[in-house]
Amino acid sequence: MPFLGKDWRSPGEQWVRTDKGWERMRMWRLKLLENLNENVVARIIKLALEDMESRHSALVTHSQPHIYVAKTMSREHQMQISLGDVLTKLDFAGAAKNIRRFNYVCKLLDVLINEKLQYLGGQAQKQVFSILEAATNYVVTAKTNTQLLKQLLVSARQVLIAEERYHLGSPTLWQNHMETVNRAESQLATVLEPVHEAEEGSRTLADLPNECLWKILGMLSDHLDIVSTGLTKKRLYEISAEELLWRELCLYHFTYDQVNNLLVSGQRRNNLDWNWKKLYLRLVKRHGKKEVYADMLHLCDNCNCVFWKGLGHPCLSKDGCHSSTEVSPHKFLQIFNP
């Protein structure tokens, strides 16, 4: 019989009334689970986990790195905002670990290291090299963009040696930057393994149909990648030299007026010995390549906020952010002139 009284001598068991009489709650639960089907139990557990994840995601707020810029920024206000603070607020160290923002971060680092490093303050220098460390860790883990990082480290070493006596900050800080570059090069050396010949019988890129190879090469936006691919196999060279491929590259990087002006100037000089590849190389020499980034900084046209396009920002306008302007690395340094 169940113990229904409130006496302190009660064993503490909970009882439930069933068709067969009174049963302990603990034993009744075990019998209930034994009678359930395995599929039903799995479904109950799945629903419970989904409910727990939805509650957890509702409590988590996604970070939106951003910084507001005054539309009429005076020189005094500009001096109050240091480049180190801007790099921290926009989370460039975290952006270096994202495949969509990696190229943009590396381009900004390239400009800062080659043109601005010796003029930066100590805090900004620390931020630049902490971002470089984050980019190195990402490349070593993902094993992608190794050549891009290698060029960046070579530039950093050359600048550190050339500007050793003409920089802001202490010599100890400058030496710490050199040690950071040494560590990064040591980490990168573990990833840069020698290329081995393919084993006999194994399939390679050159075994794909011409249509697939043309499609793959057509997705490359850098002509150096196309030329390097063509140097590996004769078949790849023939495809990389096709006129249609270089024509598409010309129309992607340059406007119709730029292409037409170069053609007209060539006709005036009676220089008719040209093809699309030569035309592209001349256009690159005159206008430079088009900067292409999967995700980059934008400037909101309503609240004048600099933010990552892929992450958005808390717009101050009631209507929200309907339009924004792309911020290239050079324009970024014009806004936050170090």
TrEMBL record:
A GO CC annotation given for this chain: cytoplasm
Transmembrane helix listed as a keyword? no
InterPro entries reported for this sequence: F-box-like_dom_sf (IPR036047), F-box_dom (IPR001810), FBX25/32 (IPR040394)
Ranges of residues in domain F-box: 202-249
* Lineage top rank: taxon: Eukaryota
User: Would I find Nucleus among this entry's keywords?
Assistant: yes
The molecule here is called: F-box only protein 25
- Specify the species: Lingula anatina (Brachiopod)
Q: Which gene encodes it?
A: LOC106173879
